[in-house]
Design brief:
By secondary structure, this protein is mostly helical. It is built from three helices and no strands. The chain has helices at 17-29, 35-42, 46-60. Helix 1 packs across helix 3 (46-60). The N and C termini lie far apart (30 Å). This is Helix-turn-helix type 11 domain-containing protein.
Length: 71
């Protein structure tokens, strides 16, 4: 069983594809998904979010647009 953060978001280990899906769900769920709010909500490192969004685009064909700081 994996730990959850204060928001109930499961903290999958680095390299686990489910981390990408947690990020995708957070982008869809949050009213204003920015690097800061995504980091706080998911527990992911701020420096990895941009690369993880690129992985979602490349590996899973997900369309994610960014308007200024908001995904």
């Amino acid at each position: 069983m994996y730990q959850q953060n204060e928001y109930g978001v499961v903290q999958y280990p680095k390299g686990d594809a489910r981390r990408l899906f947690v990020l995708l769900a957070a982008i869809d769920y949050l009213e204003r998904p920015t690097l800061t709010t995504l980091t706080k909500f998911t527990g992911h490192n701020k420096g990895t979010i941009t690369a993880d969004v690129d992985k979602l685009r490349d590996q899973f064909g997900v369309e994610i647009h960014k308007d200024g700081p908001v995904y």
